[in-house]
Amino acid sequence: MDNASNLLIKFSQKLFQDSTDQAKFIDALIHPQPFQPCILWCQPRPDPLPFLIEPPLAWQPTFVDRLALTEKPGQHFLHDQGYFYCLDFSSVFAVSILLTLSTSVNLIFDMCAAPGGKSIFAWVALHPELLLCNEVIGKRIGALVSNLKRCRVEKTIALSLDSSILAEEIPDTADLVLVDAPCTGQSLLAKGIKNPGCFHPVSINKNANRQKRILANSAQLVAPNGYLAYMTCAYSPEENEQVSEWFLERFPQFMPIAIPHLEPYQSHLTDLPCYRIFPQTRLGAGAFTILFKNVEEDLSIQKSLSPDFLQRPRLIVL
Predict the structure, then answer these.
(1) What's the start-to-end Cα distance of the chain, in Å?
(2) Considering just the CA atoms, what is the radius of gyration of the chain in Å?
(3) Does 35 map to a domain?
(4) CATH number at residue 121
(5) How far apart are CA 259 and CA 266, in angstroms?
(6) Positive or negative CA dihedral for 25, 29, 35, 38?
(7) Burial level of 240, CB count in 10 A (0-12/13-18/19+)?
(8) Is 161 contained in some domain?
(9) Burial of residue 270, with CB atoms counted within 10 A of its CB: 0-12 exposed, 13-18 middle, 19 or more buried
């Protein structure tokens, strides 16, 4: 047995007590099978639909379709025309926590936005007055802007600033902040993509520390009564439940919000209302998600984006 296999076995034992669950998890990563394609409609659906679709789940958004395995939506001409965005259903699962928001959302900030799927979901679901899409990794900005333009996402600004700068310059401004945090990307294995070292403790701890930093800075942007959504595509508790527990200890003005439609997916690794899917369920490659609310009631704290910030030369207005 090589070291990588040994790490995966130990990792599965940390996630699941039952040996059958451990075996199913390992098999889903070692022998990955294709998942049903998934699309997010950005424009009105054509009639008739150009794809064979799977029956929707009870909580599935009306603007999302899971397709038959034989479909290749990325090759359809409607894709190039911006009618829909292709994404893993795990992403839909994670960002579906936004469907529980009943209050109007004026400003949404997506901290780690590239390639843009969750930003587009938030734009379609919540119709914000302004959507800010940030991506600190410069080489990923091109894909983000391209997808936002292709899908005709309006009232949107793309930018590339470190979370610490944003925490200093635009605190207490956003009604909703999304943090799809950089992670070990362990779920890539379920898609048949090689990702060496993703289960190594050093890599997991390095990513967990980065996630805490980004989440702490992102919290500064959330206005009173605003929301902070945290999600990853990693399986490790250190990057998910433990980061969430750390965050609540560090920022007591936030409380976790239960998501009724995701109750069947409650994480078995904590009592916090946070939710997971694993690749063996065949819904998607895997995801973790949790929603926090800033219960600070002093609405006078909320600020607006300053003209100086909006005139930054590195902003791309769409």
Answers:
(1) 52
(2) 19
(3) no
(4) 3.40.50.150
(5) 9
(6) positive
(7) buried
(8) yes
(9) middle
Asked if the structure places residue 133 within a domain, the reply is: yes
Which domain, by its residues, includes 163?
Answer: 89-317
Alpha-carbon gap, residue 243 to 249, rounded angstroms: 10
Number of compact structural domains in the chain: 1
Tell me how far CA of residue 191 lies from CA of 182, 212, 311, 316, in angstroms: 18, 27, 41, 32
**292, 227 Cβ separation under 8 angstroms:** yes
Please, which residues have CB within 8 angstroms of residue 98's CB and are 6 or more apart in sequence? 121, 122, 125, 126, 176, 229, 291
Closest of 230, 184, 222 to residue 203, by C-alpha: 184
The DSSP bridge pattern shows strands 174-180 and 107-110 to be parallel
Q: Kindly list the averaged pLDDT for each block of 10 residues, start to end, along the chain of length 318.
A: 78 96 96 97 95 96 97 97 97 98 91 98 96 94 96 95 96 97 97 94 97 98 96 98 98 98 98 98 97 87 86 78
Convert the pLDDT of each residue in 178-208 to its tens digit.
999 999 999 999 999 999 999 999 999 999 9
Answer whether residue 16 is part of any domain: no
pLDDT tens digit string along 251-308? 999 999 999 999 999 999 999 999 999 999 999 999 999 999 999 877 777 888 988 8
